[in-house]
């Protein structure tokens, strides 16, 4: 699925990375716990989260996250938007809650970035 | 071969404890340096992850610290040296879910007790030593070439 289709599906606003909407995405990871994002999210996935501080963008950069999807209609601080632009990481914002966002994407073929957690 | 030989590049960065608005900037810089060296994506990513976790630990728990990056032909080494409270029980700190993070750290989405465990997972070689009320030293090695016996 193209990021542009994700935008339509989630009725999302593009906060950063308008030029990257033709990027293909296949997988996603959703969490508000950045510790878990660091431990489990895979390169090339979308990150669905309700956290909006700059660390979300730093982590996306570190992990090679394809795009950040901000859920629950959260407003992003200006410094988060600036950093996303600087690091060329697309950010979309949707009013849907995390569950609904994940469900809509999953129903259209986006799968989790790992099937289950190996302990 | 002497260990001092074959260093392609070495960089050091100061980290300020408690400064959350700057947290992660060193990892972003280190990642960009590694990318410019055209190392494999996986090596760059794993190095960035361990560096970031170490950087967040210094900001969260130490007074100050230094992160250094050494690039050799066959490996990337990241060392994190801090002055601070240290870790009384390393074995316990390495356990998933164990954390001494305060509310401020948790509100930012950290403090789930995954950091050190994650560093170990993403490093090929991981050394840790610590002294209470002195500080903590981490050394992470990531191979960028297949290891020859």
Short description:
Chain A has helices at 3-9, 34-40, 54-63, 78-86, 98-107; strands at 13-16, 27-30, 46-49, 67-70, 91-93, 111-112.
What do the pLDDT scores of chain A average to?
Answer: 96
What structural class do you assign from the helix and strand content of chain B? Answer: alpha+beta
- Spatially, the strands of the biggest sheet of chain A line up as 1-5-4-3-2-6
Largest sheet of chain A: 6 strands, mixed
Radius of gyration of chain B in whole Å, from Cα?
15 Å
The CATH superfamily of chain A is HprK N-terminal domain-like
In the predicted model, the low-confidence regions of chain A spanning at least 5 consecutive residues are none
Report the biggest beta sheet of chain B as strand number plus sense, adding barrel if it closes: 5 strands, antiparallel
Keywords:
heterodimer, A: 119 residues, alpha/beta, Udp-n-acetylmuramoylalanyl-d-glutamate--2,6- Diaminopimelate Ligase, Chain: A, domain 1, 6 strands, B: 149 residues, 5 helices, 5 strands
How would you portray this structure in words?
The complex is a heterodimer of chains A (119) and B (149). Chain A has 119 residues and is α/β, with parallel strands linked by helices. Chain A has a single domain, classed as HprK N-terminal domain-like (Udp-n-acetylmuramoylalanyl-d-glutamate--2,6- Diaminopimelate Ligase, Chain: A, domain 1, 3-Layer(aba) Sandwich), CATH 3.40.1390. Chain A has 5 helices and 6 strands. The longest helix of chain A is centred in the middle third of the chain and has 10 residues, at 54-63. Chain B is an alpha+beta fold. Chain B has 5 helices and 5 strands, in the order E-H-H-E-E-H-H-H-E-E. In chain B, helix 1 packs antiparallel against helix 2 (41-61). The A-B interface holds A 32-39, 43, 51, 53-56, 58-59, 61-64, 79, 87 and B 20-21, 23-25, 27-28, 31, 41, 45, 48-49, 51-53, 56, 108-115, 117-118, 121.
């Amino acid at each position: 699925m193209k990021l542009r289709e994700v935008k339509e599906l989630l009725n999302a606003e593009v906060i950063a990375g308008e030029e990257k909407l033709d990027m293909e995405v296949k997988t996603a990871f959703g969490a508000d716990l950045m510790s878990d994002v660091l431990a489990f999210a895979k390169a090339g996935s979308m990150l669905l989260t309700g956290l909006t501080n700059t660390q979300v963008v730093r982590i996306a950069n570190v992990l090679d996250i394809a795009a950040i999807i901000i859920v629950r209609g959260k407003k992003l601080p200006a410094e988060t938007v600036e950093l996303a632009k600087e690091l060329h990481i697309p950010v979309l914002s949707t009013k849907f809650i995390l569950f609904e966002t994940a469900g809509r994407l999953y129903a259209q073929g986006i799968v989790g970035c790992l099937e289950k957690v190996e302990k | 071969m002497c260990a001092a030989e074959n260093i392609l590049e070495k960089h050091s960065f100061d980290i300020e404890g408690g400064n959350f608005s700057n947290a992660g900037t060193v990892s972003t810089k280190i990642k960009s340096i590694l990318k410019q060296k055209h190392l494999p994506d996986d090596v760059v990513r794993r190095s960035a992850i361990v560096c970031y976790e170490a950087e967040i630990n210094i900001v969260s728990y130490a007074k100050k610290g230094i992160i250094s990056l050494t690039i050799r032909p066959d490996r990337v080494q990241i060392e994190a040296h801090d002055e601070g409270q240290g870790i009384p029980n390393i074995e316990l700190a390495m356990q998933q879910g164990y954390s001494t993070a305060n509310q401020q750290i948790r509100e930012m989405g950290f403090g789930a007790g995954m950091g050190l465990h994650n560093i170990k997972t993403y490093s090929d070689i991981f050394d840790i030593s610590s002294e209470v009320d002195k500080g903590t030293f981490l050394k992470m090695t990531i191979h960028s070439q297949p290891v020859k016996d």
